[in-house]
Fold this sequence. Notes:
The chain is an alpha+beta fold and 133 residues long. The protein is built from 2 helices and 7 strands; from the N terminus they run E-E-E-E-H-E-E-H-E. It has helices spanning 59-62, 104-116; strands spanning 2-4, 11-15, 40-44, 47-53, 69-74, 81-85, 127-131.
Amino acid sequence: MSTMAPGTNAIVTAWHRTYPGGRVTEPGGATMAIPRKGSRLITVDGTLYRWAVRAKPTYCQGLDWGPLTFAVEDAHAPGQVLSVRTSSPRLDNWLSLPGKPVTPLTVEQSVRAALNAGWQPNRSDGVFFHLEG
């Protein structure tokens, strides 16, 4: 299911599977919370969220075959994770291509767009994928 996030040009797609390259998977397919180490907190509309960018690029991201991604979840009750795919290469890509960093404003806008498109952070299954506009 793909929809346009109201008030943005972001395309939001809901999938149900584990977060690729950063989400820890337990036996049986259940996912665990984003690790505290290396993550940051942000408050959006009164709710506290934890967000993180993968510490090192994947092989595809290093070669600029895949863009910079980051993950967001409710900090108090981790559930459905929001995976945001930006349009920028990672800053630490191996080809030294210019990229755009993930800022708190980027995270805030992505959280709002995903919530408007149906992301349910307290839902306990799967991942909600969001393409930054």
